[in-house]
């Protein structure tokens, strides 16, 4: 069973609505119906046209999150993925509609159409004028069903905003319904899922996907998509989805559009931003003017990983209605964007400016070894990621792989002397690796490079002194010591072993192998240590049994140097 932060699965909808109302000023909850409405509505004869929407729960922040001045007057919540009852919709109409009437915005599902439609009929028999606007924006069904049978999905939120702003502007019932219907007709959406969602209380998800599979063209109720296919890059998915929407909605190169990038519940902001980037780029490349963009989780499918893209053709009136103010708590605000990405030139000067001398006697050997180390780190990425996932935050392998790519990208002149090689490598790692590894390695390499500034062909003893200098630089910067379960548990014993071996007169390669053996022994010993510093320290004793990834990485690259000497 999927873990959920709930009490009783039977009470999730009411308790969710109570939580929304308790934490949001200006909202109220009907005592005996799952209806959230504006708390301070004027007297009935003073009310503008009410805008009411809703549907099954599980789409949060829709629909209650869009209740507020300038958007929805009320939201009606059914059980999870289940249409609200006719009576609940009728309660909402009675509670917030006056003589000006109400517009019901309904997503195109049979249950919603039946219950909202019957409630509208009953309300009209009571003398309340009602218009229904049906949203059927899911273009993925363009080859499967007629337009009037398509599903309503995330683009519905844009219709909420347009209708709510029109009502706040004092427009009549007929005018608002006409504006909303025309907007719905110019709206297209399509989704992609990386996995299924799990209903509260359910023992398993609605479907399963292999690691490399996705569902393309899905609804918002945990169902499968129109097509199962292999996963593609974010840019490729944007192209596939947008091409379908553009062709179906007949969006021309001269058209202005609003773009909605919507998370389905378990998609990170990082992924949504990458999808937004890809979508904006594709639209601009095809001559379509993107004037408004909203990016976030606006209408979810519980905890489904994936997203949908929506396009709405814009004119001046729609843009003005989308820009109009609203007090709805989860409307993401102004969607205005620049028509070109704003980039500011970097400040002049750089801390990594280096004057490269002519290539010294060790240049070729240093470059060969450095490239071998880089390739080894790339090959070891899965292993290092696994170690860091078990006792850290899981980013070490990817970080060192980025560092390896930065090393491989350095120009030939960077390897001119030991000093330039170390300093250039340090600066490259500083820029390529975020988190702690980048600064630690950069500090060590730069200080070691400065130590060898005047030595084009250092002796083994000079290399040992430089190595020890670099290791101590890391200890000074991070405040760790041997025994704290960090990379220093490999570096400091290695530095001592290297120095001891050179002082004993051993050849350079033999002395370095002694350092490698000490590094490996030190790395292995971290498996028995309780971490004192770094992300692993948050795990305490739970990290015991797994060696520190940073220390293991040191042992790996040191041995790779030994193997290439």
From TrEMBL:
It holds the Pfam family Dak2. The keyword ATP-binding applies. Residues 326-354 are annotated as: Disordered. One of its GO terms (molecular function) is kinase activity. Gene3D superfamilies: 1.25.40.340, Dihydroxyacetone kinase, domain 1 (3.40.50.10440), Dihydroxyacetone kinase, domain 2 (3.30.1180.20). Residues 8-331 form the DhaK domain. This is Dihydroxyacetone kinase subunit DhaK. It comes from Thalassospira marina. NCBIfam families: PRK14479.1 (NF011049). Keywords: ATP-binding, Kinase, Nucleotide-binding, Transferase. Residues 340-351 have a biased composition (Basic and acidic residues). Residues 364-563 form the DhaL domain.
